[in-house]
Amino acid sequence: MSVYQATASAPVNIACIKYWGKRDTKLILPTNSSLSVTLDQDHLRSTTTSRADPSFEKDRLWLNGQEEEIKEGGRLATCIKEVKRLRREVEEKNPNEPKLSTYAVHIASKNNFPTAAGLASSASGFAALVSSLAALYALPASPSQLSLIARQGSGSACRSLFGGYVAWEMGSSPDGSDSLAIEVAPQSHWPDIHALICVVSDDKKGTSSTSGMQRTVETSTLLQHRIKHVVPERMKAIKEAILVRDFDSFARITMQDSNQFHAVALDTDPPIFYMNDVSRSIIALIVEYNRVSIENGGKIKAAYTYDAGPNAVIYAPKENLKEIISLIVKYFPQAEPFKDPFGLFGAQGVGSGAVVPGFNEAVAKPFPVGAVKGLIHSKVGDGPRVLSPQEALLGANGLPK
Ligand code: DP6
């Protein structure tokens, strides 16, 4: 008897132009377009195995080994239903194809990073789910077509269907058929953009993106200005910057847009604060690091950006990462030795950190160990990958291994 099963992995993406606000909460249609960089799956990824079998009684899903309920009409159910619909189209065109769309599916998914790291896993998670189902069903669908489905799992997930530099075009159709991800440039176009994720410790339960952005849509007047006048210009400008590999413009726009996203969060009633003192100190360090460079006739060397939480993501050309990591480690001493995936620091390790000549050390106070509880060094990466059967998360019995 045939086994119908496929495994895929998908990357995390971090936005430079932020998605914040929905015009349709069910279809997940945004109030503005957004743009992100896809990060390397060798560092952060979700992996998902899907299997269809006539003996399965119902669709079931396990996340990191725990079974999750697939709520009727919920985001998971919608994604599964939509991929099955595309499979049915294939079966109607080719009557010899097995009727996989009529079978229930078992889905097992895991992230290689702990949920406690405070990194959003919904983007890579839904992208991996849709990619594994598309592989299982041998769908002749493009990444943009699959992004229409991943979008209905979590908005930002649509951008994880591509590697490199990715735009989510908001579209205008009420049915959402033109609200999809497109590749602005592949990873190979500008491979030397690196990312340093500073995992900031945070005890309080933050406001989720989903509920936070709806409150912003309902109450913020600044958001209206942002979506009408600011984002359309920025989308154009950052795409151009990417196409000509202009880090200076890319960085300016990225930092401005992070700032404005947090400004509209503050403009929400009641206000939402995602950044904390550690986040703000990292901004001060990057601003000073760039100031020193510009004052010496150089260019911007790093860009910070923050999502709906206190973690910083610092984008920079590869050649600046050693200085940036040294700087962060000086102000935010690490309990664990820095994992150095690109071998920047050799046998000595990162040590106790250092600043570049001319740096005004008074722009921030050094924090105790644990304020930044981890540093993840990554870079721009590729899109979803279909993996070999050896990497399956489901055993021969169709249950998680
Ligand atoms: C701040 O995609 O998590 O990270 O569509 O409700 O699932 P839902 O929201 P989500 O929001 C992400 C918001 C953001 C900005 C971004 O990634 O563009």
UniProtKB/TrEMBL annotation:
Residue span, Diphosphomevalonate decarboxylase-like N-terminal domain: 10-181
InterPro entries (UniProt xref): GHMP_kinase_C_sf, Mev_decarb, Mev_diP_decarb, MVD-like_N, Mvd1_C, Ribosomal_Su5_D2-typ_SF, Ribsml_uS5_D2-typ_fold_subgr
Record family assignment: Belongs to the diphosphomevalonate decarboxylase family.
Pathway recorded for this protein: Isoprenoid biosynthesis; isopentenyl diphosphate biosynthesis via mevalonate pathway; isopentenyl diphosphate from (R)-mevalonate: step 3/3
Enzyme Commission number(s) from the entry: 4.1.1.33
Alphabetic keyword roster: ATP-binding, Lipid biosynthesis, Lipid metabolism, Lyase, Nucleotide-binding, Steroid biosynthesis, Steroid metabolism, Sterol biosynthesis, Sterol metabolism
Taxonomy, superkingdom: Eukaryota
Name of protein: Diphosphomevalonate decarboxylase
Lineage: Eukaryota, Fungi, Dikarya, Basidiomycota, Agaricomycotina
